[in-house]
User: What shape does this take?
Amino acid sequence: MAHANDVVEAALEANAATRASLIEACDALTEAQRLERWYGGQRWSLHDIAAHIAVWQDAAAGGLEQIAHGERPAVEGWDGDDDAFNASTVALFASAPWPEVMTALRHARERHESAVAGLRELPAATLEAGGTAHRLLLLPSTHDAEHIPAILEWRRINGY
Assistant: This one.
C-alpha cells in the first residue's frame, strides 16, 4: 500500500518556503507600520493579517489531527461563514502585542508541522489533491501566498 510520505515531505517544504517569504515580507517594520489599516474592505493591518493567518493555520492543524485519528475534520468556530470567522480571528489578537502575534504564528506552524508529520503512514489516497486533507495540508503555503503579494505591494507603495 502506498503511503503519504512523499506528499507530506513536499507539503512541509512548500509550507516552510512560503512562511519564510511571509516573515520576510513582514520584517523590519515599526509598530506604527504594522498597525496601519490598509488591507481590503475590512481595512486590516499587517498585525491583523498575521493573527488571521495564525488562527487559520492552527485550525488546519486541528483538522489534520482529526484526520490522523480517523475522524472527520472540523474547524472549531467556523460555521461556513468565512467573513464571520475571519473577523473573529482578528478580534482574538486585537490588543495583543506584535511579539505575541508572532509567537502564535510560530506555534501554529509548529502544531501544523507536527500534524502533517502524523499523516506519513496514511494511505496516499487520503491526501489526494483537491480533497479536504490536501487543502488542510497545504493551507500554510496557499494562505500565506494569498497575502504576501498585497503586503509587498503595500510596502512598495509606502516605501517601507
